[in-house]
Amino acid sequence: DRFGIVEGLMTTVHSITGYSEDCDGPSMKDWRGGRAASFNIIPSSTGAAKAVGKVLPALNGKLTGMSFRVPTVDVSVVDLTVRLEKAATYDEIKKAIKEESEGKLKGILGYTEDDVVSTDFVGDNRSSIFDAKAGIA
């Protein structure tokens, strides 16, 4: 809300799922989807960007996305690159996100400056955690 989004790209990185293939074989969806999930990084399509537009109507049609399936057991990552309506420094963006994570989005949005990896988030009930050390501006 503070900076406005003109457009953006969401790249999601997902753990393998129960329907991921154990070894190379045919896939009903696409060739890549039939490859062995525990040995590959598999590019795929995603509906995440469209879903964001349904939940946050102000972003409808502004985001596009792609995903990768990776051989981990849990936790996903979203790399969000956006063009803002209002200029902002990375420190201003971090401050705004931290304030929201401690205010109206407490328990939903997290904020961390710790040196974390994916397994540090297993069991975390929050919908999203902003990793301040993983971003750039």
TrEMBL record:
One Gene Ontology cellular component: cytosol
Limits of the Glyceraldehyde 3-phosphate dehydrogenase catalytic domain: 1-136
TM stretches of this protein: none
Entry superkingdom: Eukaryota
Involved pathway(s): Carbohydrate degradation; glycolysis; pyruvate from D-glyceraldehyde 3-phosphate: step 1/5
One Gene Ontology MF term: glyceraldehyde-3-phosphate dehydrogenase (NAD+) (phosphorylating) activity
Annotated Pfam families: Gp_dh_C
GO BP field: glycolytic process
Keyword terms, alphabetized: Glycolysis, NAD, Oxidoreductase
Family matches, as InterPro entries: GlycerAld/Erythrose_P_DH, GlycerAld_3-P_DH_cat
E.C. numbers: 1.2.1.12
Membership in a protein family: Belongs to the glyceraldehyde-3-phosphate dehydrogenase family.
Full protein name: glyceraldehyde-3-phosphate dehydrogenase (phosphorylating)
Organism, as annotated: Pachycladon stellatum
Lineage of origin: Eukaryota, Viridiplantae, Streptophyta, Embryophyta, Tracheophyta
